[in-house]
Design goal:
single chain, 381 residues, mainly beta, Tachylectin-2, Chain A, Immunoglobulin-like, 2 domains, five-stranded mixed sheet, 2 helices, 32 strands, globular
């Protein structure tokens, strides 16, 4: 109760200072066509460059293994095969929950030799030819007691932090009896230690009195944390997101993004530019992968949508922004790293903006007037 009260007061103070956190929204569900995959696909993870999608087979703990495929387009991937080196060759086995940083450090959980070795998070660094750093990840974020293990973990974009899930299993009908998230900082290639204020940063998410909390995924900028939760005595999972304004802030009260009773949506992974998420869900008796595109962001202070538009899109040399109002508006264009590359202030009704000097790629156009705003994706050719 104290933690919840502190979170509310923090949120209230942010609102008073007009620094409202924003909650992303996503459009309709799109099935992923994974060519070559005919069985269960779970726990997707999109590589930082967006060109590979990792997943594991059914979480049965008998033949669970990691696989990956190459991107054809956003909703179509071609199976390449099993991830090299990492999967065990004998049953029973469980190698699952892939995670990759920009230096090609690959992390996954495995129950090999558990509980004789409690350090069940593993690592490997893939090189252009071969690999290095194959072994277990160590650190003080484990709970060294029977029944506890790292159920899920996700490395941050640049590899400096680990978001992990401590889960306790003790005959709880196939799900953990309890599970919560934590943050650990990288000490070296083989060691992460729990962040000193991990509990405070994640207090609003770790509502362990009511939920099992797991499957974390942090955005590149560190401002959005996606996770899955399951209410105690329930069979309906929810994919949620919590946001913050700065990387030193605690995350705010989470928002439910996806709830599909009976279909177990879980384990969202988000692209580097935050334009799309992938996740798994049960359909037709097996787990399949799905995609959703990001739409307009909404604010916790119920920020209103701005009725503005721009064209053409895709564009090559220029775009025209139109806002049918007598109010002035501001325009900012950001790259996928969140850096503002173009800024125009105090525009009125329409504005032609030259973009010919921008490199080809994906950008985000934000148009703001007073307390109203809109953000849309721009493809620069």
């Amino acid at each position: 109760m104290i933690n919840k009260l502190c979170s509310f007061l923090l949120l209230f103070c942010f609102t008073l200072n007009f620094k409202a956190q924003t909650t992303p929204a996503f459009g309709p569900e799109i099935p992923v066509n994974f060519i070559g995959v005919t069985t269960d696909a779970m726990e997707p993870h999109l590589s930082p460059d967006g060109n590979a999608l990792f997943f594991n087979s059914l979480n049965d703990g008998i033949t669970t293994s990691l696989f990956y495929g190459g991107k054809i387009n956003d909703s179509t991937f071609q199976l390449v095969g099993a991830v090299p080196i990492v999967n065990q060759a004998t049953t029973p086995r469980l190698d699952a929950v892939a995670s990759l940083d920009t230096a090609n450090n690959f992390y996954w959980v495995s129950t090999r030799n558990y509980p004789f070795d409690f350090d069940n998070l593993h690592r490997i660094r893939f090189l252009q030819s071969g690999y290095t750093n194959f072994g277990r990840v160590h650190g003080n974020f484990y709970i060294y007691s029977p029944g506890w293990l790292i159920m899920d973990a996700a490395i941050s974009h640049y590899g400096e932090q680990l978001i992990y899930c401590n889960a306790y299993f003790n005959n709880c009908t196939g799900v953990p009896c309890k599970a919560s998230l934590g943050i650990a900082d990288k000490i070296n290639d083989s060691t992460f230690n729990k962040t000193a204020n991990s509990g405070a940063i994640l207090a609003a998410l770790n509502d362990t009195a009511n939920y099992i909390v797991y499957a974390p995924q942090l955005t590149e900028d560190g401002l959005e944390l996606y996770f899955t939760r399951l209410a105690h005595a329930s069979t309906n999972t929810e994919i949620c997101v919590a946001t913050r304004n700065n990387v030193s802030d605690p995350f705010g009260i989470p928002t439910v993004l996806i709830s599909s009773p009976g279909n177990l949506p879980e384990a969202a992974t988000i692209s580097t530019d935050k334009s799309k998420i992938y996740y798994h869900k049960k359909e037709g008796g097996i787990f399949k992968l799905f995609l959703r595109y990001r739409t307009l962001a909404t604010s916790v202070s119920e920020q209103k949508e701005l009725a503005a538009k721009f064209y053409p899109n895709p564009a090559h040399e220029k775009i025209v922004i139109e806002y049918n109002s007598s109010e002035h508006f501001h325009i900012s264009i950001s790259n996928v790293w969140g850096e503002i590359v173009l800024l125009e202030k105090d525009c009125l009704q329409s504005k032609e903006l030259a973009i010919d000097k921008l490199k080809a790629g994906t950008y985000f156009v934000e148009i703001e007037s007073g307390q109203k705003r809109t953000m849309q994706k721009l493809i620069k050719q």
